[in-house]
């Protein structure tokens, strides 16, 4: 499965790890990852350690996560991007909407 989730020990942070291509084919799995059992989650981490590619539909999915998590008040970090993924996020000005590490 290209999308894996886990919760922090205190239950307040949901980590969503994307493996391989982050594109429209992962839409439902990504949506399930943040919508299912999200009670009590206050912080979100999208771990892109193993993400090899990201397209415009993935950018849209990140925006849907942001809306779900509280919009401007959302606490979302995108972590461990490779240089290609990071470049796409930078060109798209996602650094203004998300914390990218």
TrEMBL record:
<protein>
    <submittedName>
        <fullName>STAS domain-containing protein</fullName>
    </submittedName>
</protein>
<dbReference type="InterPro" id="IPR002645">
    <property type="entry name" value="STAS_dom"/>
</dbReference>
<dbReference type="Pfam" id="PF01740">
    <property type="entry name" value="STAS"/>
</dbReference>
<feature type="domain" description="STAS">
    <location>
        <begin position="15"/>
        <end position="101"/>
    </location>
</feature>
<dbReference type="InterPro" id="IPR036513">
    <property type="entry name" value="STAS_dom_sf"/>
</dbReference>
């Amino acid at each position: 499965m290209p999308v894996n989730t886990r919760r922090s020990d205190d239950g307040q942070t949901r980590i969503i790890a994307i493996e391989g291509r982050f594109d429209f084919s992962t839409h439902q799995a990504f949506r399930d990852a943040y919508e299912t059992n999200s009670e009590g989650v206050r912080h979100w981490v999208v771990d892109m350690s193993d993400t090899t590619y990201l397209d415009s539909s993935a950018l849209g999915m990140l925006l849907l996560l942001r809306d779900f998590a509280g919009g401007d008040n959302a606490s979302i970090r995108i972590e461990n991007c490779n240089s290609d993924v990071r470049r796409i996020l930078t060109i798209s000005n996602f650094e203004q909407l998300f914390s990218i590490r």
